[in-house]
């Protein structure tokens, strides 16, 4: 089953790092549009939306999340008109469920305390012209930074927009996958080492590298 994942970036300060870092989730879509679209959370005029983000995509151990942004779906040709949300609340929390095991019963996905990072307030959705890929123009800075710890589970993001039901053309970029696998790349020629040759690997962002297999 394909599970759409809204593309977003999180501003985070990973434990032990001196500088702030931005990260696009899923990886590899920094300059490419996702393969799907999501009507949530803004394709409807009201409702509650939950999104589970795999902790491995965020950091290796822990991170301080300072904000988030979403971008429009790049395949549409219409300009999304600016819209005022009279009330929007965003909460973050740790959860034991994964993107593939999350429940349609929202309470079941809340396996830990939720932190209100964007308290109930008016929010203006900006005008978004056609662009592929779109820019991350729907942005938030958290009122309270969220301390994420991978040992406590994955990240649960919850949007709450009260009001009457209705539809709106304001679709977010998304990416779906039929499996939970990652990305692979081949370097050099495959084969057996001729001898006990030493080798080194340099990775500027270790939290993005999860090697597997055997030599």
What number of structural domains do the residues give? 1
Shape: globular
Q: Gap between N and C termini, in Å?
A: 33 Å
Helix coverage percent: under 10%
* Total number of strands: 11
**Percentage of β-strand residues:** 35-45%
- The neighbouring-strand order within the major sheet is 3-2-6-9
Main beta-sheet annotation = 4 strands, antiparallel
Class per helix and strand makeup:
mainly beta
Low-confidence stretches: 1-5, 10-17, 180-184, 210-215
Q: Determine Rg (CA atoms, Å).
A: 19 Å
The helix-strand sequence is EEEEEEEHEEEE
The pLDDT mean sits at 80
Walkthrough of the structure:
The chain has 215 residues and is mainly beta. The protein has one domain (5-179). 2% of the residues lie in helices and 38% in strands. It is built from one helix and eleven strands; from the N terminus they run βββββββαββββ. The strands form three sheets. The chain has a four-stranded antiparallel beta sheet with strand order 3-2-6-9, with no helix packed on it. It has a four-stranded antiparallel beta sheet with strand order 5-10-7-8, with no helix packed on it. Strands 1-11-4 form a three-stranded antiparallel beta sheet, with no helix packed on it. β2 and β3 (21-25) form a beta hairpin.
Note the main attributes of this structure:
single chain; 215 residues; four-stranded antiparallel beta sheet; 11 strands; disordered N terminus; disordered C terminus
């Amino acid at each position: 089953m394909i599970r759409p994942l809204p593309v977003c970036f999180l501003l985070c300060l990973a434990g032990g790092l001196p500088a702030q870092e931005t990260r696009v989730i899923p990886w590899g879509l920094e300059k490419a549009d996702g393969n799907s679209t999501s009507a949530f959370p803004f394709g409807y005029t009201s409702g509650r939306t939950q999104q589970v983000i795999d902790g491995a995509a965020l950091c290796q151990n822990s991170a301080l999340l300072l904000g988030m942004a979403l971008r429009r779906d790049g395949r549409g040709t219409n300009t999304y008109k600016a819209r005022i949300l009279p009330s929007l609340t965003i909460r973050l929390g740790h959860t034991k469920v994964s993107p593939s095991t999350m429940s349609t019963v929202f309470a079941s996905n809340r396996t830990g305390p939720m932190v209100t990072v964007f308290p109930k307030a008016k929010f203006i959705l900006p005008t978004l012209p056609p662009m592929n890929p779109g820019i991350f123009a729907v942005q938030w800075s958290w009122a309270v930074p969220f301390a994420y710890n991978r040992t406590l589970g994955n990240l649960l993001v919850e949007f709450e927009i009260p009001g009457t039901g209705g539809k709106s053309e304001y679709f977010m970029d998304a990416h779906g996958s039929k499996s939970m696998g990652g990305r692979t790349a081949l370097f050099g020629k495959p084969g057996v080492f001729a001898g006990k040759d030493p080798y080194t690997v340099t990775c500027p962002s270790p939290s993005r590298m999860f090697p597997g297999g055997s030599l």
